[in-house]
Amino acid sequence: MKKYDIVVIGGGPAGVISAVTAKKYYPDKNVILVRKVEKGVIPCGIPYVFSSLDSVDKNIMPDKPLETNNIDLMIDELVSIDRKNKIVKFASAEEIQYEKLVLAIGSEPIVPPIPGVDKKGIYTIQKDLEFLRELRRKIYESKNIVIIGGGFIGVEFADELSKIEGLNIHIVEMLPHCLSGAFDEELSIPVEEKLRDMGIKLHLGVKAEEFIGGEKVEQVKLSNGEVLPVDLVILAIGAKPKTKIAEEAGLYIGRGGGIWVDEYMRTSDPDIFAIGDCAEKRCFFTRKHIPVMLASIATSEARIAGSNLYELKVVRENRGTIAVFSTKVGDLALGSAGLIEKRAKEEGFEVITGVARGVDKHPGALPGANQVMVKLIFSKCSGTILGGQVLGGPSAGEVINIIGLAIQKRVQAVELETLQMATHPWLTPAPTVYPVVVAAMNALSKIK
């Protein structure tokens, strides 16, 4: 039987970063990472293997971080955990004894109970190289594609597939707007307009009721009676944590369905940690479960777990999930962090909002300038920032990170009003009308 000080199960971003962090903080410990596939894929890059990347093989997650840090790699599949004897068992009958175990076993796609959902031609999104090669081939053989779900995955897939000539693309979303879980209506609408401009047909506020056809799907029947012809369906309605093996091992499962963890990513067994999609997520503000699965959150959790395996580093703890998102639709970039206005009000917060619109270069006549919109949400009582959203050009991806940091540090509107920032005509809006500052000023004016 093999023996390792630290065993990491899972080869995604969470697994790799936790192993590398563990080796950094505990260099004398031997570390092994076990994943079930020979080559892993970069999760965030999956939508872009169909056109922007001309091959699925250009989205392979590199093993160099493991090699550089002298972390062993084994290809196998976890089947059980013997907590009493601290042994993990694998499909090959291999066993490894551990001191500390990190579970980064991910999630699995949600398959809705729609009649006909088991027909051929209906695909979930899998983080598997061979699966993605097959899906890419089938997409190029298709003419009519229906995407079920207008969240981030569905919108990003539609955006990417619209670049392939000859495809008719439909998004079916049961809510009134696309991306409504992360953006308020005034930011979702411009995204929908951009999607329509790209030729993508939106079916909002309706459900897929039935997949019709013989052995293979041929039509999708919607709740409004409309019937769409289809060659291929992509189910993009989310995922659920993989917890079966953890449950069988007697680890606590949280109310939201993920493996329960504390602020240091420890499970109910102090020698077992859980990170990434499989771990329970709790809201930064309310501590309620939130179904947020992002590589950025997974790697943050991975660094917390990796540093706290043997002794708690109080400077590294998980105080809750903020949910910082960014995406791109055509030439429109957008980001969201924390609570949207609608969600904040549903939770009972009394809020004020500030909005700023401008240009991301100065003067705005410079080539390549983009219109930008920033919306900030604050507690009316304390002035503390609760959330923010950005819409504009490529700079939106970094502006939302500024807002995310402000949320983590519980910054107040008056502090953002006097934010000191670097500006340059080619790189940023003018310092006189920097949108984060102007949005904070706009919110404060509603108090004064």
UniProtKB/TrEMBL annotation:
InterPro entries: FAD-bd_OxRdtase, FAD/NAD-bd_sf, FAD/NAD-binding_dom, FAD/NAD-linked_Rdtase_dimer_sf, Pyr_nucl-diS_OxRdtase_dimer. Pfam families: Pyr_redox_2 (PF07992), Pyr_redox_dim (PF02852). Transmembrane segments: none annotated. Its cofactor is FAD. It comes from the Bacteria. Keywords: FAD, Flavoprotein. Belongs to the class-III pyridine nucleotide-disulfide oxidoreductase family. This is Pyridine nucleotide-disulfide oxidoreductase. It comes from candidate division WOR-3 bacterium.
